[in-house]
Structures are given as structure tokens and as C-alpha cells.
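User: quick one, sequence for these C-alpha cells?
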């Protein structure tokens, strides 16, 4: 014997509601990696404080970076012409390059090389 139609409608409504709640719960949970990479105000929370105090660093486009091996690894940030020598290099904790330049003096502070490079 089949259950009455009202019971079937009730069970279908419960199943649909649970599916919607599950979808909302998954959507509402922030991704841990993104949270780590962007910290407060969109600034990564892993910048070396001795480099820029989380004030002078920013992610940059790959096309803005130019590598050279003249006298050791050197990077030039094309938009400003800033040069970063190997002593300025740090390891980026995401898949992007980051430059740290003092906004007042224009001095090159740090260059964060992409992970795995």
C-alpha cells in the first residue's frame, strides 16, 4: 500500500528544504586558503613585518615582472622601474608575485617570488 499523497508531499518538502540548507551551508563557509592569503582589508597576513609592516606590499601582474640573471637573480618591476636583488627575495605563499616599495622614498624593500619557483 502506498503512503497518502499528503505524506509524500510532506517528505518531498523536507528533502528539498534539507538540500537547500546544505547548499547554503557550503556556500556560506569561507575558503580557508583565501582567508589566509588576503587577511584584513585584502592585505595578505603573511608579509614579513621586517619588510613592509603590511603597508608597502601588493600583489602584481606577471606581465609587470622582468627577470634577469645579470650578476645574480634580479627582478625589475616594470611600472616603476624598481629593481629587486636576490637579497630582497622572499617566498610568496600564493601563486602571485608581490612587490614592496616604500611609497615615500621609492626604495625597493622586498620581492615575493611565486610559490614553487
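Assistant:
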Amino acid at each position: 500500500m502506498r503512503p497518502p499523497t499528503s505524506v509524500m508531499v510532506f517528505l518531498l518538502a523536507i528533502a528539498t528544504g534539507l538540500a537547500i540548507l546544505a547548499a547554503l551551508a557550503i556556500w556560506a563557509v569561507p575558503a580557508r586558503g583565501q582567508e589566509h592569503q588576503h587577511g584584513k582589508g585584502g592585505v595578505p597576513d603573511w608579509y614579513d613585518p621586517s619588510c613592509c609592516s603590511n603597508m608597502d606590499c601588493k600583489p602584481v601582474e606577471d606581465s609587470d615582472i622582468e627577470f634577469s640573471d645579470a650578476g645574480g637573480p634580479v627582478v625589475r618591476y616594470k611600472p616603476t622601474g624598481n629593481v629587486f636583488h636576490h637579497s630582497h627575495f622572499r617566498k610568496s605563499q600564493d601563486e602571485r608575485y608581490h612587490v614592496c616599495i616604500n611609497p615615500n622614498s621609492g626604495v625597493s624593500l622586498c620581492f615575493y617570488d611565486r610559490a614553487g619557483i
